[in-house]
Amino acid sequence: MSGRSNPSSAMSPTSYTSPPFLDSSSSSRRPARFSTVSSLAIPPAVSPLDLPRRVSGMSLPQGVGKMHRKVSNAASGSGSGISSPDYARRARRLAARAASGTGTGIGTGTGAGQGAGVGGQGQRTIMEEKDWAGIEPDEIFRTLPVQEVRKVEAKMRADALNKQSELRSMVGTRYRDLLTSATQITSLHSSSLKLSENLKTLSQACNNPAEASILMDEAGETSEAEEVANMLPVAAHMKLLLDAPEALYGQLAHHAYLHAAFLWLVTRVVKESLSNMPEDVNEPYLPLLHKQWETLLPFRSHIVQRATAALRSRETTDPKTLSETLLAIILLDNLPISDALSLLLSQRTKTIRDILAHPTEPTTPKVTLSPRARRRTLSRARGPAQEREAISAVLSDAVRCLLDTVDIAGQVFAAREKTGTKESLLEEMMRLVQVGEPAPVTQQAPVRRSSQQRRTSRMLSISLTMPQFNLSADSPPISTPQVLQSLPSAQILLRHLPSSITGFTPFIASSSAPALADKLAAWQTSSTDLLREAAPSWLADLQSVSDVWRVRSSVVEVLQGDDLRHSIREALEDEWAARTREVWDKRLKNLVEVAEAHVREAGEAMRQNVDDLDSNPEGYMFSDVTFPSAPTSTLVGSTTTFASFLSDLKRRAAYRTPRLDAVLSVLEKTALDLKVDMRGLPEQLHEDYGVRVQGMLGRLVGVLEKVLESMGPARGDGKLGIEAELFVGRVALFIAKSSSFLGDVVGESTVETSDVVDHLLRVHESSTSRWRGRAVEEAVTKLAPIFDPLRGPREVRASWQGPHPVAPSAPVMVALQSLVSSVRHLGLPQGVTLPITPRLVEAFVDQAAALEGWKTLEAEGALQAAMDLAFLILLTGGRDDIASTKMLTKVCQGLKLIDSSEYSADSFTQAKDADIVSEDFPTQLPTLTLDSLRRTQLLLHPLIAHLDPAELGPTPKPSGPDARMASLLRFGPPASKGGVGGTEFRSPLAVSRPAKRFGLLSIAT
Fold this sequence. Notes:
By secondary structure, this protein is mostly helical. α4 (64-76) packs antiparallel against α5, α14 packs across α17 (384-413) and α25 (563-608) runs parallel beside α29. The N and C termini lie far apart (151 Å). The strands form two sheets. The chain has a two-stranded parallel ribbon. It has a two-stranded antiparallel sheet with strand order 3-4. The protein is elongated.
């Protein structure tokens, strides 16, 4: 038991052997404590219990002789009562060394207790060389003066205090080890005694086997029966508590909240039953019981929380399941029925809120959204059809949730008259649960005496069949036997648990029936308001009226039926109409903004490149066109290519130049979309739409006027600005006369567009004011050669075919051709008659007639001037005013008139330089100008398109080979004989050499 130390190592502070009540491992783990003991020169054999007593009585350090006596006593066993030969020898060695002056004394210096002169450590004072503890006090007083004595006294008192504090510290740390060792020794002692008895019994049994078997059977039967009788009920209690958490988790996973709640109540009863058992029975299980109950206790709030969350389910729930869920909450929280109804309605309100919750866009990519929120956020990138279906599903789900809540609340909480009792379904379940059902009768295993029979009895008790439950219509929805039967150890529990547990029924406080009608009415109103408030945020994602109306149709389909559904439908009608109006306002506003942007952009582009196709619509019509290519395979058709080609031809024929077509296409497409959206709407909305369209058209006219003004003369860009103004005017003109925009944007509404058309035409007219002035100015400039002073009679008569002119002069035709070229830049659509050209011609004729140069012309020049002015007057439609012109009167007064019958070529030649003229010239002048107009009608067609041929005179009937082609001329063919000169006129169509099939054209004669 005790280790022996090497005598040669006795001087080492850490070389001694540990005491017998400490094992070697603990001494090796705590060398510091033993080093403290060694540094104090106290042998380990001294009992720590004696140290405080000895230290408390120490006033001054004792001498070596006294320490020798203490060490001798410790070696003889008078200290702690523990003696050892090894400790005795060690004590004798320490005493011998102390007597020789080289041992370890009670000091605090390094190498404490070493004699003077041992070690050779230099010069020391007299206070350090002597061991004052072993000298008598009288000797000290005789040897030293008073001051040195006081120093010795102070030094020895300080050493005593240090020793005392060190001893107390050592005792405090070793006392705990001593107590632990004492307890272990006692336990070892009892275990040794029991082992000794068992060995004796085993020895007796080996010596006498027969007698030992009989004694063991009798003692075993009695003890085993008592032990089993005491352990099985307690084990059943503990088994139920151990199995309950797993069963609760499983029931919660299967949404069996009533079973989970009832099982938790049973566990609470089992816990109380086990706690109330006698201490000698339940004492071994109490720590496990408390630990297990800490696990089971949170299940109560967890079950209530899960059951409450189940009330928010969006799936259709049958009344029985909902009643069981509410009953679970009532059992655990002891709720009255009215509070249960309020809880149901509040949870259903949360469900409707969750359905109608409209997620917002995430502010940062790091934000984590729920799956539903991510679905709503990603819906922004979906197409209109998918968005419409998603919104329709959300609103329909919310409406169904509202209706289902009202229906199922009535089925669960309303009194049922058909059953003969005025109980609701929930009240009936509460009554049946409190009544419960009787516990099943268990079969008892027969008692056997032999060991073989006892083993058979144990197997039989495990293999007995489960008790059968006779469930009827009046059976409770849940009971303790049903709950216990669902556990894996149901056989043991039903057989060994007391009847107070197997027959447990909960107590439910009675409560009055809730005011179902009033609460449901208030809840319906609040839920309808919630639905109406949330609808706009969802409908805001719909960008077309047709989508809004389709969503409305799907929701209205759900709301077909009773008064409740009708009230919800009426509440939502205003929201459908409001969103429809918002869509119209947004799209009409966007239409005006897009129109302004496109028109302004195209106008600015016209300024940058004035020589493009948009500035010459007729040139665009006759520009090169790409013909559709033939299909490379018979399986591949060219319908698309031909349709594109045909569409291009139609645009060219309508003078829709590229930029103009781009602007009009955007407007027409938007208008067509609005027209499609208008289908199937009620008449009231058509009226609202008409008001909005009327305002939009007014704003559109204002936008065109604004853009036209910005392109006006204020920018000082001359011709470039004029072309941009003409383009803006063409946009207004085409919208008013040659586009489907107005018809589509008005749709089925009763909007009168005549005022809008008038405003658009005024915009077009305003765009031509600068153009008209420039065109007239350029054309008048072309008349300058008429008034050239170097122009003599010969130059004037060079174009005559007789004694008087029969056609306007060349400068007049050049000026008119300038006007024709200017008119072609207008790009007026076919079939549109506007006063723009007549006003242009009138402005030109007025300025031309007002020229002062006409007054300076004489003789032939005046005669030609009369013809020119008469022709210009004819272009304005005033044929009757030709004879009364001032210039013609002046010519007749200054010239010699001769009879036309006397006129001959010789007389004309002889009088070529004379002021003679045929006397019928003034009367023939209207005919001559009309005939000249017929000769030039193809060249001047843009300027005379507004003239009525019937007002100018009767149209001659053509004859001869050109009669068929002459019918193509609007004012008829000219006279065959060309006046006095007798020249014959031939139709200019013959010059073009028509194709062979040209004569097959059907021309009305």
